[in-house]
Specification:
The structure is a homodimer. By secondary structure, the first copy, chain A, is mainly α. Helix content of chain A is 75%, strand content 0%. Chain A has a single domain (6-201), classed as Tetracycline Repressor, domain 2 (Orthogonal Bundle), CATH 1.10.357.10. In chain A, helix 1 crosses helix 2 and helix 4 (59-83) packs across helix 6 (107-117). The first copy, chain A, starts with 5 loop residues before the first helix and ends in a 5-residue tail after the last helix. At the A-B interface, helix 1, helix 6 and helix 8 of A face helix 1, helix 6 and helix 8 of B. Chain A binds a DNA duplex through residues 4, 9, 12-13, 16, 37-39, 47-51, 53-54, 57-59.
Chain lengths: 206, 206
DNA sequence: GTCTATACGTAGATAGAC
DNA sequence: GTCTATCTACGTATAGAC
């Protein structure tokens, strides 16, 4: 029985930390912040509820960490799209593709975000992260829309309204996807009616 | 001191019942089902929490009544649009107008619905109402989209995907409106960037 | 019809054993 | 590092007074 080294301990710590976050995402996505119990997360992560308090100071802290990660991921798409080479339309298309793929592949992340957006009762820090990263995505989209209008690729009109509409559509698709997940969790044989990039972009296309 | 008549008592009952529902809508819209305490509703309705149990059997019962009313209201628009005279496009336009107006004028109703859609933790009956009325709206929209396609007014393509996209857009607009309400509750001087009917309909227009 | 006081359950968080 | 036992607080729902 050799004692664990410092590195091994650190590795265990990191693993547990990650386990809690993963379990938290799954549970918060389904139930929302208030309805989620620490014991739910503990059960999903296969550990005692006491152990969670060894890694996080509170339920709030777990939630904030998750919201921050989720929003950071969403903001990355926006930054990438802005910095990419190509026409404004190509970059808008790229952004839309990444967002739709994100919703398809990681609906839980979008679920927690949408939940958080509609709830007054979340921790202040979570709200701050939501605003901070959210405005980043919004501003990036607005810039691309304006550039697209100058290039004649995006329809004319109030760019704020158009950006807002596009942004709303993405959020709405996230909701629909999540609430469908709930009704038919693993339906794979059904025809694929998921929204295509070109359909979503119709709202902006000149 | 004349004793109250049966009618007067009934009137008081109805008033209280309605007070609780109104207070419930306001509170549930902000906090969601789980985070809302009975005492919150009681405070908003200016009555003791005990009295709520005189009119409703439980917190769940209050919630279900609210969800049912909200969804019923949404379904009415869809039914009206279906039965209206005029071309498919005119009726789609009518539906869209009513939905956007509903979001603008009664965001709390849409807030509770969107909250409910994204949460696993709501009462079974509320879930059932959500499904029942929701599919009514969805089916009505699908019918109009198909008729519009036959008339060449709605763009060609998978009608299910298009309906789903339009439906998602409306839900997304509801979320955006609600989460903005939260950030700047009574901002009236700002320019109006709310989404116009024609912008929303771009997603369907041929 | 309405309120206040209370019972009961349970969730968040801590302490101490291993 | 991890678990179990426990404390404390609070929310739902009821009972009984007015």
């Amino acid at each position: 029985m050799s004692p664990r080294t410092e590195e091994q301990n650190q590795k265990i710590k990191d693993e547990r930390h990650e386990q809690i976050l993963q379990a938290g995402i799954a549970v918060f996505a389904h139930k929302g912040f208030a309805a989620t119990k620490i014991t739910d997360i503990a059960a999903a992560a296969n550990m005692s509820h006491g152990l969670i308090y060894h890694y996080f100071t509170s339920k709030e802290a777990v939630y904030v960490a998750i919201i921050e990660r989720a929003m950071q991921g969403a903001a990355v798409f926006a930054t990438e799209a802005l910095e990419k080479p190509g026409t404004a339309w190509e970059r808008l298309r790229y952004l839309c593709e990444r967002q739709l793929a994100g919703i398809r592949e990681h609906p839980e992340y979008y679920a927690v975000i949408v939940q958080a957006l509609t709830s007054q009762d979340i921790p202040e820090e979570a709200h701050a992260a939501l605003q901070r990263f959210g405005s980043k995505v919004y501003m990036a989209t607005l810039t691309l829309v304006q550039q697209g209008q100058q290039a004649g690729q995006v329809v004319a009109g109030d760019p704020v309204e158009l950006t807002y509409a596009f942004y709303s559509l993405i959020q709405g698709i996230a909701i629909s996807t999540v609430s469908q997940l709930r009704v038919r969790p693993q339906e794979t044989t059904d025809n694929d009616h998921s929204i295509k990039v070109d359909t979503a972009l119709r709202i902006l296309k000149a």
